[in-house]
Every structure is written in structure tokens, then in C-alpha cells.
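Dear support,

We are seeing what looks like truncated structure output for some complexes. This example has two components. We would appreciate it if you could run it in full and send us the complete C-alpha cell output so we can diff it against ours.
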Amino acid sequence: MSEFLISGGTVVDATGERRADVRVVDGTIAEVAEGLAPGPGGTVLDAEGAIVAPGLVDIQVHLREPGREDSETIESGARAAALGGCTAVVCMPNTTPAIDEASVVHSILERARSAGLCEVQPAGCITRGRAGVELAPIGELYDLGVRIFTDDGDCVADAGVMRRAFEYASALPGAVIAQHAEDPALVRGGHMHEGAWSARLGIAGRPATAESSIVARDLQLAALTGGRYHVLHLSCATSADLVRAGKATGIRVTAECTPQHLVLTDAACAGFDPTFKMNPPLREQADVDGLRAALADGTIDAIATDHAPHSPETKDVPFEEAPPGMLGVETALAVAHTTLVAEGIVTLGHLLGALSWRPAAIAGLDAAGPEGGGHGGPIAPGRPAHLCVFDPQRRWVVEGERLASRSRNTPWEGRELTGRVRHTLYRGIPTVRDEEATR
Amino acid sequence: MRHLLSIGDLGGRAGIEQMLDLTATFAEVMQREVPKVPALRGRTVVSLFYEDSTRTRLSFEAAAKRLSADTMNFSVATSSVSKGESLLDTIRTIEAMGVDAIVVRHRASGAPHRIAAWADAHVVNAGDGRHEHPTQALLDAYTLRVRRGPTLDGCRVAIVGDVRHSRVARSNVYALHALGCEVILVGPPTLMPESTDGWPVTVVHDLDEVLGSLDVVYLLRLQRERIAEALFPSIREYTSRWGLTPDRAARLHPDTLVMHPGPVNRGIEIAGAVVDSDRSLVTEQVANGVAVRMAVLWSLLGGGEFV
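Here is the complete output from our reference environment:
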């Protein structure tokens, strides 16, 4: 029998906030009440001054395995996720080979199980080889637990293919078609947001319209087919307005955005530092403001990081030659807390919803099941003990060298953040204890 | 100034004028019987050109030699780069040989900024992607100053053509504006920058509308590849609307000057007869390139006495 007592914290979940200790026995939450005493042989985890929340669920990370293990592995990425407070992640299918067949899903699940750091749910491709032409074996992948289908990295540009994907997946309860919304014809050759900065720097742009035009089209296709649509890393204010309007008319749409799109603008690219290159690109202040408003009013359901490790060898090159993407899974909560909560954009409870129970619901990771589902709370007796203990006062400075990722491409290098994950429990076992990974 | 990556590094009007004054001194040196000074003796300048260029590379090389610097030429086509060496490793290799300045041309905008972040040597941008070509803008401003007198205040300059893809235009907009010129960008909307927010310019699409009021017409080289990118329909249509044809040249004010960074597409953006006419500064632009680059290298490397 294993017992942990999380003592002295404030529990925050979808049901609200209360002072309570949490007793975890054999992977399951046993008691939630004030003034609990440790049982014989139990271990006390100090939560004094801290928030005890459901484990975070990052539904968009790139773990690079199989294919680019020099940049990240399932183990190193899962460790970074645990240090960021995650108990589950959804890994994107743009690996080599792509996640478009059962054997790749089996291999990822097996490696994630042996790492034991968090749950890893693979996302499956919409189209075979992410080529945008033929459907991937969506049903077969679904049977292995895949719920999010996307060609992320690339947009499904062909409206006919996208329509068929919506139709086909609509027969599978809980499956969702997720789009990297950037019309390839409008972003070809582009490396950053098209606007005043790209014009000044002489870098070909990726206009916001490339995203919003695809979002508008896909919303129409979702309406036509009754399919479930999820917009990955939504980046511009116009797209947020479209999603808001779509939700109002009853279209089954959800959306996520990244911490970097909620905080940084294209001005970060002024020094040609490739760390700040990503797709979709960092945009303008008006977009940041629009995304923040959309997060606050619930138009944007979730914050996901698009954690995209790239080894220094591939990333520290001229801006136009660098691959797009930034690290994020280890810093998401701290960054969002330092900016969005401190500036009064959202409450900590709302933020935790966007990082935990709402993305858990999008990916179907909330349902309790034999494979250790039940992510996102609530923190109540009988629920699986997937927990994140977060100290909102703790100040620390981000150093890429000290992150758990195999790569160093964090856009937050040198930033002082307020708030840090103290402990993470996955299936009732600490994967992070006193800010250190336990395995 | 540690590096010259963009016109902004010169620090505005005073810094640019100082560099132009220095250029005048070096232009005088070049008139001497022995056009060479020992100012950079013992210093090494390497040129690292990832893009083809004849005039700029030769011009920098001549400038370094006339300052008595040692020069090395890193030819990308025949080097380890063709074997897959990264830019960072190339820079480390060059620095290991002991160099004081790296003159770099690269197809990627901002590549000199990366090099400046890695290198101990001084970095001179000899043209990066569509971003900037600061020594070209300096030699253009110097050439104009020689012809028009010490001040360019109020000078109306139209930069005509493919501004969107032009590093020459970006550097010139900022240099000419800093020196008091009024800058007008002329060309089809598809060849104008995607945004000119914050640019000290007026944008005009009809060349004939401004033709008669200009002090300087600065033509940019047109690249045929832009047709395939659906940016304009044909050379014929471009020339008829934005080319400096003999007919348009006849409508210029008699004192209006014509400039072009070269190499010229005769008969496309500018008629051959106009290139060869008295109002053309094209040859002087090339001639002044060496003195400008002497001034830049001397300033960056903190050279000693040269008079």
C-alpha cells in the first residue's frame, strides 16, 4: 500500500476552491478534508501556501519520437511535462514515421508506459503520411485510444478531404478533427507574421488571413457534416471572433491557444533570433489582446503549448533557415500565471481550467478508465490521483540549460516567473517532488 | 559601432554624415599616385559570400587592400559549406584562423545578425536576403552628395520597382530619410512592402504622376522570377508602366539624376540610352563603393592614422 498526504494547500478544481488536505491511497484519492493526519507509513507532501489542482493536460506537444530523438524523446518530453505539472499530454503525429498506423501508436504507448512519467495519448494523422490526400486508418487508431486527429505541422488544405474526415470521424464518439489552420497557398515561403515587422526585416510573411480563412471554411464544413472541430494553436483575433460566432450558432467547435501567442508579439523577431520563429507565427498586439479576451470569455477553451523541441544544431541557424517551434510544456503554467493571472486577464481557477479539465474533456482524457484516464479532476474521493501542486509565490528564472527537454529553444530564457510546480502526482505516485523529477 | 548590420547601426543623421565625410577623405586617398595607406596593416578581413556578387565582393576586397589589410576570400561553392558545414561551424573555423572583420553576404535576411551573435570579429553586412545592404545605401548617399552638394535636405527621391524584395531599397529608405530626403516608393502594389507602417515614405503606384517633380529617380533591378510568383504579368507590361523609358526620361526635369544599384537590365527597368546619359550616376556609384567600404572597415577596426 502506498499513501501520500498532500498537506496544507488550497484545492482548486472545476467545482471551486477550498482549503483541504488530500489523502492518496494506492493511486486513488481517498479523502479530501481539512486537518487530515498522516496514516502509518504514509508520506507527507508539503502543500503549504500552494494550490492543489488536477494534473495539467497539454493537448499539443511534439515529443519527436520516433524520428528525431536528438531533439526530444517520449521520456524526456514526459519528464518536462511532469515538471510543468502535467499528468497527461497529447503528442502530435508529425513524427518519422508519422502516427498514421497502429504500430506507431503501440510503440509510443509502450515507451510512455515504461517512462511512467505521465499519460501520453498519441494524436493520429487525418491523412496517410500527412499528405492531405487519403484518409489515415482513423477507426483503427481510434480503437487504440486515439481521439485527436490532425495533420499538425501541415494544414489539411483540400476542403473535400477535410469534409470527408469530419464525416468519417463523426461515427466515432469523442473523436475530434483538429486543424493546423494555415492555408499553404498564403503562407508559402513565409517565416513570420506578415505585418510591419516582416516588411521592415525583409522576411516573407505568413498573413493572419491564412489562418482565419481556413477557420472560416472549416467551421462551415463542421456545420455541414455535424463533425467535431478543434482549432489548434489559434493565433489571431479574427479567428477567435469566428470561433465565438461558430459556438453561438451551435457548431461543435473548440479552440486552444499557446502561452506564447497570449504573451509575445512579432516584435520578438526583431533581432532575427530563430527562437521566436513558430507556425502559426507570433502576431500583433491587437491579436494578443483578442486572444486574451477570447480566453477570458471561454471562446478559447484550452491553453496548449505546441511544445516543439529543436536541437541547437537545427535551430541556431539564420532565422529563415530555422525550423519553426518553441519549447513550452515545462513553463506553461508559470508563464500564464506570471502574465495572465497577474495582469487580471483570468483568475487562477479559470487558468487551471484551460490547462487541465477543459483540455482533458476535449481529448477524452477526463473519463475514468482502465488505462488511467480520469484526468482533469474533480479532486474527490474515488477519482484517480492525477494532481499538480503549484506554489503561486515561488519566483524563479528560466534557464534553457536546466530544463528537462533535450532541446534549449525556450522563448522565456532569462525571464523571471512567479509560480512553480512543487509536486506532480501521476496515478498517485510523485513524478515531481519538491521541484525535482523523481525518475 | 561594433558591427554594421543595418543603416540603423550608424545612429542616425550625424553618424551617417560622419561616415560620408570619412568617405570623402578616403576618396582623396584614392586620387594619390599610390592609392594605399597602412591604416589596417596586420589586420585580416575575410569575405564570406553565400550569394553571387562580383561588384560588392571586389569592392570590399579593394577597400581592404588599399587599407593594407590582409584579405581572405571564403568561396562558398568550393568550400566545406558544399560538404554540409553549418554556418556556425564555418564562422568558428574562420575565427580560429584569426580574423578581425567578416564581410558577409547571405540569402537569408538576418544571417549577419546570427553571425554577430556568435563571432568575436566585427561583422559587415554586404547584403542579407531582402533585409539590408547598408554599404550600398552609403555609397548611394555619398554619390548624391558629391553631385548635389553637402546637404540632401528636401531632395525628392523616388525608389522605383521591386521594393518588397529589395535590401537596397530598405537601406536607402532609412539612409536617405535620415539625411533629409523625401522618399517616394513607386511600383505595383504587389512589389511594395506588405506594410509600410512606420516607414518614412509615401507610396505611389503611378510613376507618371510624380515623374516631373523628382530630383532623383532610383531604379531597382527587376527579377523575371517574380512573374512566376504572380506579382506582375509580363516584362512588357512592367516596362510600359514603371520602366524609365526614353519617353519618360524626356519628361524629367533637366537636373533630375538617375541611379541604379546594378547590375542593370537594360531596356527593362531602365532604357540603355538613359543609363549612358549625363544624368546617370550609375558608373559613379560603382566608383564610390571602394571609398565607402574603406571608411566602414577603418571605422569598425579602429584603424590608425592614414593621412
